[in-house]
Amino acid sequence: MSRVLITGCSTGFGRLAAVELTKRGHEVVATARKPGTLDELDVALRFPLDVDDPASVAAAIDAAGPVDALVNNAGFGVAGPIETASLDDARRCMETNLFGAARMIQAVLPGLRARGGGTIVNVSSAAGRVGAPLDGFYAASKWGLEGLSEALHFEVGHFGIRVRIVEPGGFETAFDANAVRTAVDGSPYAELERQWEAAQPLLTSDGPAPDPALVARVIADAVESTEPRLRWLVGADAELAIGAKDSMSFEDFETNMRGLLGVTW
C-alpha cells in the first residue's frame, strides 16, 4: 500500500489513525514528541518528532525515508477568555498547531513532488470553522490551518498532491485533559462559562460519547480516497454547527444558535 507518516501518535486521533491505517495494510511511520509513548504501538516504524523543532523534523523525515502521505495531527488546546489567556500559551499553540503543520508540509513536499503525487491530511477541528467562546486562540490556530490547507490545495494539486482537511467535533480523548486552561472562576467571564458549559449537551446526541475511532477511520479514508474533496467533517455536533453556519448569514446563525443553546451572554 503506502507509507504514511503521522504526527502526534502518543494518544487520541493520531494513535488510533496509526492503528487503523496499519490494519488497512499501510506502512505507518508513527511519531510523537515523547517516543516512549509509542513503545506498544504495533506499526512499521516509530520515531521521536517534535514538530516545533526544525532539527527534530529534519531527523525524522530523514529516518522515515520516502513517504506517500503525511497526517498532521499533533496539536493541543488553549482555553480561556481572550482578555486573560496567556499570550505565551497562545504562541505555543500557534507554533504547534499551525507552524508545526507547515514545517512538516515543507519537509515532505519536495519528495512528494519528485514522486509525482501523494496526500497531505491536516487534522483541523470544527473550531476551525466556528469560533466558540472561551476557545479563541485554539480556534485561531485551526482557522489558520484551514486557510493554509485551502491555499496548499490550489498550489500542489498541479503536482498530483491531494490535500485533505479533517474537521472533528467533540470526542472523548485526552485532548481536553491536556489543554492549557486559564481560570475563569471569579472573573468577569464566569457567567459565560456557566452558560456555555450548560449548553454543551444540546450540541450532542443522547447516549454515549461518540467513539474517537470514527475520526481515525475518516483520516484513513482521507488518506486513501482519490475523490476531489477538501473537507471531511466528523461528528454530529460538527455537522450541526458548520452546516447551520454555511446555510445562512452570520447574524442569523448567531440568533439561531443562541436560541438553540440558551446562551444569553
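the 2nd protein, sequnce then structure:
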Amino acid sequence: MTTGTQPLIVDLFLSVDGWARGATSPGYFGYFGPDLEKWIAAELARPQLVILGRRTYEALASLPEEARDESSHRMTELNKVVFSTTLATAAWPNTRICRDDLITEVSRLKGESTVPLRTMGSLSVVRQLCDAGLVDRLRLMTFPLLVGTSGLEAGFADVAPIDLELVDHQILDGRVLLLEYRPTGRDIPRM
C-alpha cells in the first residue's frame, strides 16, 4: 500500500473447497452464529466506503424489511459505490452507480477517500481488483463444508497468481475460520 492512500479490504465467504455459493446453500452456508454476527457488526461499525458489483448490490438492497437486521441498517448508512453498466438507478440510500472503469476508479478512490475501501462478495469485482494489484488485505471466511458439485461460483477462478502473507486468523463459533492475508508483491516461484 502506498503512503497517502486508503487500504482496500476484500472479504469473501467461501466453503472449504473454494466456492462462494452453492445451488442449495443458505446464507452463510447455514453456519451463522454469535461470533460471526459480532464480527460482522464490528467490521460494519468501522468507517468505510463499500465497493460492490451489481449482483451483490441487488441481493443486499432487495432484502425485505422483515429480513433486515442491525447490520443491514448499518449497510444502508454507509456510502456505497456500485460498479455496473446495466443498473439505471440505485434506490438504496447512500449509493452511487459507477459506469467508469473499475480499476481506474478504485485507484482514484484509494487516493482520494478519507476512509478505507471494502468490498464484500462481488466476485467479478474482487477478481479484477486482485489482478490489478489493488487489494491490500484479503480476508477469507472459510465455512466448514464442501459444496462439491452444487458449487456455482469458484472464489478465485481465473485470478492471476498472487503471493500472500498470513497476518491474522480467528476461529468463530468454534467452526468458521477467518484468515487475513496481505499480498507480498513477491513473484510466485515457477516449477
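The chain is about 25% helix and 30% strand. The helical segments are 34-45, 54-61, 70-77, 102-112, 123-131.
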